[in-house]
Amino acid sequence: MFEKSFPMFPSNAQLIGLRDVLSIAPVGKFNWCVLSFYGIGKAPDKLSMEEFEAKIAKSSNGYSFTWEALLKFSEGLEQTFDCLIVGVGRNVAIDRKRVLNGDYTSCEVVIDAFDSSEWKIYSQQPIARANMI
Prior knowledge:
Layout: E1 2-7, H1 18-22, E2 31-41, H2 49-58, E3 63-65, H3 67-75, E4 77-88, H4 96-100, E5 109-114, E6 118-123
Antiparallel strand pairs: 1-6, 2-3, 2-4, 4-5, 5-6
């Protein structure tokens, strides 16, 4: 698995957001699921951010997005503090507990934000260069 990590606030002090991270993540015909999220911005489906975060926490497989909906969601975010987003094959079931415990074997792509400090991308495919990051 390929891995790339970088700070959320690089030396130029400009925040790197989820939208920036998605711009370098491998894109395929994946099912995208948010398995955990804590952040500020506009939640999908007219939910408050608190309702969205609670819905994810209570769900057995997270909150599903198409690629286009994930991009739209990312555009409405001011900041992501913590999140775990996975892209899996069309017919792959997500074992949320295993993924949350760091077992990414069933995932094609994993995007992880940690404590407002670092982004990590794990992927079965090579990850694009992050010149802007």
